[in-house]
Amino acid sequence: xxPPAAECTxxxxxxxxxxxxxxxxxxxxxxxxxxxxxxxxxxxxxxxGTSSWGLFHTLAAYYPDAPSATHKIQARRFFDALGDLYPCxxxxxxxxxxxxRNPPRVESREALSRWVCERHNEVNAKLxxxxxxxxxxxxxxxxxxxxGYCDGDGMPQRDDGGA
Length: 163
Known about the structure:
The chain is an all-alpha fold. The protein has helices spanning 18-37, 45-61, 69-85, 89-101, 109-126, 136-145. It has a domain at 46-148: ERV/ALR sulfhydryl oxidase domain (Four Helix Bundle (Hemerythrin (Met), subunit A)). One of its GO terms (molecular function) is flavin adenine dinucleotide binding.
């Protein structure tokens, strides 16, 4: 994977410390040996959901505080397209109905972050999972800034976002 662009200073462009890179490389070596004997499996519903929520929350966390008209249109189109294209048909139908009832709030980073969180909490409730705080400080800590150990000073953070 190429290094992040030098001009990118967002947390999403950063890398973990060398320790985590070394651990990842070691795991990939094991996975590489495993992959030689069997092809990787497609994402199942749980992996797809976890990955999707990570993308949605991170997209919202880095959405502009004062988005342009173009950003607003693009964000709306992104979520509208998911309501038509999401690979899980049950999830897609739920998302489409939810978007129709509660259109994406694209007027600001905070509004979109809360909107994504509220949708995530609705899904968590359906799955019997706990709800998470939609306070912007909590969302920023999880999806934009991260706790202190995310900069390589301690244990790696969970990557499932409570999904």
